[in-house]
Amino acid sequence: MKTLQQISMALILGGLMLTSCNLEFTTANIADVKVCDELNGNLCNSDHAVLSTTANQISTSCKLKNAPPNTMVTFTWKYLENNPIIIDEVTVNSGDEGSNLDLNSTLSRPNNGWPRGKYAVEIRIGEKDKSPEIKNFEIR
Question: How many degrees, rounded to 5, is the angle at CA 137 between CA 133 and CA 140?
Fold first, then answer.
């Protein structure tokens, strides 16, 4: 009887520890990440590792799969040369739809054109995604 009480107590304490750690579990995942200078609907037709300084926009698209409703996906755009900086950060909510969605984020060309160099866009599910999808590209 004493062993049963110890097991019960261990299970209760374990459950309390898991809920207090604020862990974030999800079945959602990101697939088919592409970078392009023009979207076709919600997706890039093809992936471009190199884009022109004169491109009107730079877009990234991906497929969100197996997402529960209200899954948050954040696109973080970065310029990687010299002193890397975050250009923009956009968070999209999958809303009531959840499941499988086509997502994208777009940056408009600055007045002076795009600075040449290496860039990346990081796509993260939720706030604590330990392994976001990272897509590198270059502007020449």
Answer: 170
Query: Residue 80: inside a domain, yes or no?
Result: yes
Phi first, then psi, for residue 73 (nearest 5°) are -125, 125
Instruction: Classify residue 126 as exposed, middle or buried by CB count within 10 Å of its CB (0-12, 13-18, 19+).
Output: middle
Measuring CA to CA, how many Å separate 105 from each of 18, 23, 71, 89, 90?
Answer: 34, 27, 16, 9, 7
As a whole number of angstroms, the distance between CA 95 and CA 102 comes to 13
Question: Is residue 32 a part of any domain in this protein?
Answer: yes
Please report, in tens digits, the pLDDT of each residue of the chain (140 residues total): 566 555 555 555 455 444 444 444 568 999 999 999 999 999 999 999 999 999 999 999 999 999 999 999 999 999 999 889 999 999 999 988 767 999 999 999 999 899 999 999 999 999 887 899 999 999 99
State which residues form the domain around 58.
26-139
Residue 20 lies in a domain: no
Give the HSE-up count for residue 12: Cα atoms under 13 Å, Cβ half-sphere: 6
Nearest to 61 by CA among 92, 26, 98: 92
